Amino acid sequence: FEEVSLHNTLGDLWVSYLGKVYDLTPLVNEFKGDVLLKPIIECAGKDISHWFDPKTKDILTHIDPLSGCVKYYTPRGRFVHVPPPCPRTDWTNDFGRPWWRDTQYEVGLLSVKTRWIRIINTLTSQEQGLEVCSEETLNEILQRYLRYNSHAASYTWKHDCVNLDMSKTLEENGIPDEDEDFYNTRMDRDLFSQSICLYFNDDLTEL
């Protein structure tokens, strides 16, 4: 959720809903200046799962009290690709899939929980704290760590002197999430979070 919240401008607009993350920047550019963007812009960087029916994965509906018809429920106001309440000649429905069903905007899954780990380069003695998703494999964590060490793939990754399986998650590698314990015992997470030690191999692989 924190990573999504950073993308909250017109030039970089992400939202999350129903467990996935979407980059709606192209949609904002396509409909630039359209008043129907307002509800989307107001929720930039936020989770909008409450807009949707989790069973149908479509916008919530309700019975319109005036017409007695089933219509989309949009308490923040009508937005892009939602039809008007009454027939109009200036609204076309030839856009194909509505944006909330279009996979081109999807950028990834929303993590159920994130956790902090310390990555220690035993060659240089540099230590880097990294917030990662609990669902990520070590290979995916390596990709996050590349910004700090472009040769990260040239190291053997170990925990408690045991080689880690890079295709598995931290939990699957026997590295438990102790955030709740740190909170209950008031221990400093930055000092006592689980660490991964990197041991340099004799090559320079750069990804």
UniProtKB/TrEMBL annotation:
Superkingdom: Eukaryota
Coiled coil: none
One GO-annotated biological process of the protein: cilium movement
Keywords: Cell projection, Cytoplasm, Cytoskeleton, Heme, Iron, Metal-binding
GO molecular function annotation: metal ion binding
GO cellular component: axoneme
Compartmental location: Cytoplasm, Cytoskeleton, Cilium axoneme
Pfam families: Cyt-b5
Cytochrome b5 heme-binding domain segment(s): 1-62
Broad class of where this protein is predominantly found: cytoplasm
Family designation: Belongs to the cytochrome b5 family.
Function: Radial spoke stalk protein that binds heme under oxidizing conditions. Required for the coordinated beating of multiple cilia maybe by functioning in a redox signaling pathway.
Protein name as annotated: Cytochrome b5 domain-containing protein 1
Species whose genome carries this gene: Oncorhynchus tshawytscha
